[in-house]
């Protein structure tokens, strides 16, 4: 069996905004045999997507391939002309993008875009191409395969679009498929269907593929071999089983370590004096789109929700996108006034909107947003960002304030020298720590964390979670931790609330998450989280609950 | 789909009527504020106060301004634009000939400048950063910053005075054959095309570049599409909304804003008519012209919005 992909000593450079040229791929070698699926994994910036794109002879604007060869199906995509590359793309190598929602042209029908490859390369008559597309839709388990092509991209769901993008790639019968994090943007429950569809199609056609991902558990389901990348260099290569169970490189170990969360040990002190509620949400209904005559919002997102947070504990809130998790945080923080219901803190009812709350109420309850990039003022140095709440809540000034800024940086394990830097000069993990330190500056009792580790790489996220855990012990903080990532919630929370379509369907101790969720949706959600086990996806077929849930979609 | 557009057009027409009413009101009272008196101007400096007063009564100028406004408004609704104060002719007659001239000029300029602007805008977006793109940018910025009377004067000096290819004045009454027609229109059209296309080129380029940076354009590239196909099939349809809006704004200028060009080439259009009317305090005429400009502007914007909606399936299929 020959190699369908051979990458030799690949070097790619990128030009930074300041005009500096940096080497982002430093001499990578890679082989993929016929019919083999190789996964490229690594954190963001490791160069995995860049390598995948060189297979199509493409480097993103600002990047250029400066050395080495990338041989795909006998052709060196580095050496051939642009016209030859064009004829290669879509016919012999095809690409499945990370966000299908963005990769579909909003102003053309799905069918037009799926058969476009056949049209560009004149592979077959258009009627035949359309027929073939419908067959592919069917093979990828899409609903209404006959008519789905006539719709526009905004008229189908994200999971369906992702499968449609695979159909778009398969129409030209390529030898090699390049998957670029195709399930990262999806909910876990949707991810399963997409993964299954991909795997079935690839297996059936015996195609070779490159699967780019940062999620080891996902990769374990679909890849034959795994290549671990860091800083543009290959760290470790091995069969999936071997990498998952016997990693040798330290970075791979860290990746796998981050995947196995330590079981949460309840703080004995807090347990001693029994649960003390700090925040009580009762019968809250909220939504968007202005209120009608009945004082109810046009689009109701939260329906009659009850929730209690206990002092010094953490409550995880999980659910798929659109289930109302973030809206709940916004309502509690007063950013979105509830249409109905009450929010009590320490037995005192809070105003619905921030302007109806006292400064003291505001201080006690802080919110930390998902994207530190947008939450931190890009024009202010870190020191000024942290000083602001100190002045506002505690009227600190001069040396006292500077000392407090230093203390906050110490608390979140950042060097004090960072206070002179702008947020854009920090790494993602550092920014998120600053974001969190800003909430701590108010000396809050309750912190609402809205997906604060979702945008971070696995290893970095694990470090941030450890920090949160420690701070909770030291300062007796209460967290409400919103996440779509169940292992994160498992690592840090005492109890978990499952949200579904704006309602809390179940609440349980974290320890029961694995063993006995009761509501069918919680069961489905928890069972959908990929496990670091190569047989997990195939094993699901035998699970009656999952089988039933799949049928329903 | 048709229902959506019909609803939008109806709604817009309603808003249009309201805007027109407000504009009419504003223009009427703005002209009221102008110093000078129509009767005085008509009769000249030597007129006796009695004669002026008599004329004022005859022209209903002694009535309260608001009443005159209502008179005029009701007249307008029944299709009567009123009579000119200055020469007592029907305003409708005065305007109709001039409007036809203006529309002709605007039409020829549009026919000329839109394809050129689109081509230059799209191609410079396609070859972004190239020498060609930079030349187009330099050209458009230069044209935007040079006032149009300068362009017009230069055109007259070069083509009429030195080269003697074209007549300096555009008098449309003595046209014999298509060649002469072209010669007469050439200079005003060139001048106006320069002015309106610069803005359109810049907006087209910006809108196309915006869409060229999207993930679906990268996807098209990775499907093996040629540059031409990427721009024309993928980028352009999504850039159409902003482009037609920019065009509507530029083209609306062709009716009311071309006074300088009309003056320099002595072209008998509506803009010149309106400025003349201002100097004689000819209220009915000023107002009618203002209403025409306003209607044309609103219509162009409406057309642009309808085109933008047609181009966007999200809005089209609401």
Automatic annotation (TrEMBL), chain A:
It is found in: Cell inner membrane. Coiled coil: none annotated. SUPFAM superfamilies: P-loop containing nucleoside triphosphate hydrolases. CDD domains: ABC_NikE_OppD_transporters. PROSITE patterns: ABC_TRANSPORTER_1 (PS00211), ABC_TRANSPORTER_2 (PS50893). Residues 5-256, 279-526 form the ABC transporter domain. It is a peripheral membrane protein. Transmembrane segments: none annotated. GO terms for molecular function: ATP binding. Keywords: ATP-binding, Nucleotide-binding, Transport. Belongs to the ABC transporter superfamily. This is ABC transporter ATP-binding protein.
TrEMBL record, chain B:
The keyword tRNA-binding does not apply. CDD domains: TM_PBP2 (cd06261). Its main location: membrane. Residues 99-304 form the ABC transmembrane type-1 domain. It is a multi-pass membrane protein. Keywords: Cell membrane, Membrane, Transmembrane, Transmembrane helix, Transport. This is ABC transporter permease. It comes from Jiella sonneratiae. The lineage of its organism: Bacteria, Pseudomonadati, Pseudomonadota, Alphaproteobacteria, Hyphomicrobiales.
């Amino acid at each position: 069996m020959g190699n369908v992909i051979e990458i030799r000593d690949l070097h790619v450079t990128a030009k930074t905004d300041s005009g500096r040229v940096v080497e982002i791929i430093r001499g990578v070698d890679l082989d993929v045999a016929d019919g083999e699926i190789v996964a490229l994994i690594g954190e963001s910036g490791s160069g995995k997507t860049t390598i995948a794109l060189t297979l199509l002879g493409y480097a993103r604007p600002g990047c250029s391939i400066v050395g080495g060869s990338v041989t795909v199906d006998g052709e060196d995509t580095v050496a051939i002309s642009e016209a030859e590359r064009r004829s290669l793309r879509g016919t012999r190598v095809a690409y499945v993008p990370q966000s299908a929602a963005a990769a579909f042209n909003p102003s053309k029908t799905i069918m037009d875009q799926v058969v476009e490859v056949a049209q560009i390369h004149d592979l077959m008559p258009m009627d035949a191409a359309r027929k073939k597309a419908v067959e592919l839709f069917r093979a990828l388990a899409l609903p209404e395969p006959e008519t789905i092509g006539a719709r526009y991209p905004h008229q189908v769901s994200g999971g369906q679009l992702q499968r449609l993008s695979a159909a778009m790639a398969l129409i030209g019968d390529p030898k090699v498929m390049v998957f670029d994090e195709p399930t990262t943007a999806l909910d876990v429950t949707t991810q399963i269907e997409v993964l299954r569809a991909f795997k079935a199609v690839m297996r059936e056609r015996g195609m070779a593929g490159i699967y780019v991902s940062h999620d080891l558990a996902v990769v374990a389901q679909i890849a034959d071999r795994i290549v671990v990348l860091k800083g543009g260099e290959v760290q470790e290569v091995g069969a999936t089983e071997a990498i998952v169970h016997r990693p040798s490189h330290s970075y791979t170990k860290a990746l796998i370590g981050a995947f196995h969360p330590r079981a949460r040990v309840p703080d004995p002190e807090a347990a001693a004096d029994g649960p003390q509620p700090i925040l009580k949400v009762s019968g809250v209904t909220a939504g968007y789109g202005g209120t009608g005559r009945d004082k109810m919002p046009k689009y109701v997102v939260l329906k009659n929700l009850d929730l209690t947070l206990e002092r010094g504990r953490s409550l995880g809130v999980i659910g798929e996108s659109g289930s109302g998790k973030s809206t709940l945080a916004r309502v509690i923080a007063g950013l979105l006034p509830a249409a109905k219901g009450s929010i009590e803190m320490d037995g005192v009812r809070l105003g619905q909107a921030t302007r109806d709350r006292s400064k003291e109420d505001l201080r006690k309850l802080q919110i930390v947003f998902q994207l530190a990039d947008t939450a931190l003022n890009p024009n202010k140095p870190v020191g000024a960002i942290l000083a602001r709440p100190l002045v506002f809540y505690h009227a600190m000034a001069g040396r006292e304030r500077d000392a407090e800024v230093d203390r906050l940086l110490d608390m979140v394990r950042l060097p004090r020298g960072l206070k002179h830097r702008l947020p854009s000069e920090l790494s993602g993990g550092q920014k998120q720590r600053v974001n969190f330190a800003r909430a701590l500056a108010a000396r809050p009792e309750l912190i609402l964390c809205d997906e604060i580790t979702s945008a971070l790489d696995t290893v970095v996220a694990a470090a941030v979670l450890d920090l949160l855990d420690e701070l909770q012990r030291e300062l007796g903080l209460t967290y409400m931790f919103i996440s779509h990532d169940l292992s994160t919630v498992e690592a840090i929370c005492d109890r978990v609330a499952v949200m579904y379509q704006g309602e809390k369907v179940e609440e349980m101790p974290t320890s029961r998450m694995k063993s006995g969720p009761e509501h069918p949706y919680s069961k489905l959600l928890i069972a959908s989280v990929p496990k670091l086990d190569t047989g997990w996806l195939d094993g699901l077929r035998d699970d009656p609950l999952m089988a039933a849930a799949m049928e329903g979609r | 789909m048709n229902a959506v557009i019909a609803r939008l057009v109806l709604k817009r027409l309603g808003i249009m009527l309201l805007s027109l009413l407000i504009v009419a009101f504003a223009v009427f009272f703005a002209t009221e504020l102008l110093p000078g008196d129509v009767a005085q101007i008509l009769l000249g400096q030597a007129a006796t106060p009695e004669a002026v007063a008599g004329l004022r009564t005859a022209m209903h100028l002694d009535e309260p301004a608001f009443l005159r406004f209502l008179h005029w408004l009701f007249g307008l609704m029944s299709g009567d634009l009123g009579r000119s104060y200055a020469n007592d002719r029907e305003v409708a007659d005065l305007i109709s000939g001039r409007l036809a001239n203006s529309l002709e000029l605007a039409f020829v300029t549009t026919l000329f400048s839109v394809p050129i602007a689109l081509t230059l805008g799209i191609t410079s977006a396609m070859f972004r950063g190239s020498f060609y793109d930079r030349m187009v940018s330099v050209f458009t910025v230069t044209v935007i910053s040079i006032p149009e009377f300068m362009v017009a004067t230069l055109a007259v000096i070069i083509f009429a005075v030195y080269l003697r290819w074209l007549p300096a004045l555009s008098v449309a009454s003595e046209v014999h054959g298509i060649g002469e027609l072209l010669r007469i229109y050439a200079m005003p059209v060139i001048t106006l095309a320069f002015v309106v296309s610069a803005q359109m080129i810049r907006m087209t380029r910006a809108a196309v570049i915006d869409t060229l940076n999207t993930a679906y354009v990268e996807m098209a590239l990775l499907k093996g599409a040629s540059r031409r196909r990427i721009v024309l099939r993928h980028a352009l349809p999504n850039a159409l909304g902003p482009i037609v809006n920019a065009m509507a704004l530029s083209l609306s200028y062709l009716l009311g804003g071309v006074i300088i060009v009309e003056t320099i080439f002595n072209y008998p259009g509506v803009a010149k008519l309106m400025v003349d009317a201002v100097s004689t305090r000819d209220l009915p005429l000023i107002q009618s012209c203002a209403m025409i400009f306003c209607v044309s502007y609103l219509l162009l914007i409406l057309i642009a919005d309808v085109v933008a909606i047609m181009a966007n399936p999200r809005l089209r299929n609401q």
